[in-house]
Amino acid sequence: MNLRQIFQKKFQNLFVAIVLNESACHIKCKVYQDGAIKKTFEKSFSGPYDTENLDITIENYLISLQEEYGFVYISFLLNAMGQGAIEGFNAESYRKHSVDLQNVHMINISKQWSMYASFIEIKWVKNIFSETGIDLVYSPFFILYDFIVSQKLKSKPTLYLLNGQDFFVSAVFQDTKLHFGAFFKTQNSVAFTHTDEVSDWESEREEENIANLEEMPELSMNNNEDNEDESLSGLSDLEDIDELNQVDSFSDVDDVKTLGHFKGFDNVKEEDTSLELYGRDLLVYKYLKSSLEEYYHNPLFHGEFIDEIIIFDGFEMSSDLIHQLEDELIMDVEIHKVDIVDRLCDISIKEVFK
Predict the structure, then answer these.
(1) DSSP letters of 122-184?
(2) Of 270, 136, 121, nearest to 196 (Cα)?
(3) Percent of the chain with pLDDT over 70
(4) What is the pLDDT of residues 202-221, one digit of tens each?
(5) Are strands 71-77 and 113-118 parallel, antiparallel or unpaired?
(6) What is the DSSP code (8-state) at residue 24?
(7) Is 169 within 8 Å of 162 (Cβ atoms)?
(8) How many Å apart are CA 330 and CA 332, to the nearest integer?
């Protein structure tokens, strides 16, 4: 912690965590001062929302918070398709997985595995928060990892799942090492990626590189295949994350440190909601089964037998889906109810005052 951070800790620092999708926006705020959380409050907004633009009501709320507090950090959960996680972190690893490092931001974890997001998705986040600014952008893979290391680690390959309102992440971990990762959207109306904002990968990559070289001279983009300390311009290094004293995000990209199920109010709404949840459960099972097939049959992955799935549920999963996982996939299921936006806020505090 530098002198500025020590001085800043004496004042109120507001951390604002945002989870946004087409149907809702969940915001958790925590006031941090003198090494402790002094106040917590939250607010939710109901959609539908155009995810290409930040709703003016949400924007005004964030601006009012920025006017009230001297130090405000806004963090955002990236729940878009142009992202992933793989075992390994250098150019060769990404080439094996058919991901072009020229087109993504990458963060490596303890030089064992890495997560990435496309320039297009990072650009999208900056665009929708153009009026308020954005300080930290997090991958759901990192949120899942934070939940995993908060539990007793498993010495055998274990399937983990983070269930959000409009997405879920599945990953196979053995201890803290990732063997397989997959991201899925569960709202069919959401576009595959935010291609409307950027015409092609190449122009976006060049724009990002120029901006980062000008504004962040202490960081550099180096895609040399022989460089095993591969890291992206504008992304903090997570190599020392073993004890989770260091946490990070898709951060510093052009100044960017880059839940529940709503009950119906009448019988008709409850029936519609039940059908919607049932359809979502079927989609989750389909995607989860396909990711396991990929893990077992693709020679890129270890394919060791998995008999346990641990679910961190930030939305809602029916008992029918749990039984289906147990009976049809022949797996032991352990489930933990979690608050994703709350954990996002806590991670942001660790990031700023680590």
Answers:
(1) HHHHHHHTTTT---EEE-HHHHHHHHHHTSPPPSS-EEEEEE-SSEEEEEEEETTEEEEEEEE
(2) 121
(3) 73
(4) 444 444 443 332 232 222 22
(5) unpaired
(6) E
(7) yes
(8) 7
Task: Tell the burial category of 311 from Cβ atoms under 10 Å away from its Cβ (0-12, 13-18, 19+).
Answer: buried
What are the pLDDT digits (tens) for 125-142? 999 999 999 999 999 999
The helix/strand/coil state of 276 is helix
Question: How far is it, in rounded angstroms, from Cα 204 to Cα 143?
Answer: 27
Alpha helices, H only, 216-312: 267-297
Residue 248 CB neighbour total at 10 angstroms: 24
The amino acid that residue 119 corresponds to is: F
Residue-wise burial string across 254-277, b where 16 or more C-beta atoms lie within 10 A, e elsewhere: bbbbbbeeeeeeeeeeeeeeeeeb
CA trace torsion 259, 263, 269, 274 (10° rounding)? 70
Element (H, E) at 29: strand 24-33
What's the predicted TM-score (pTM) here? Answer: 0.78
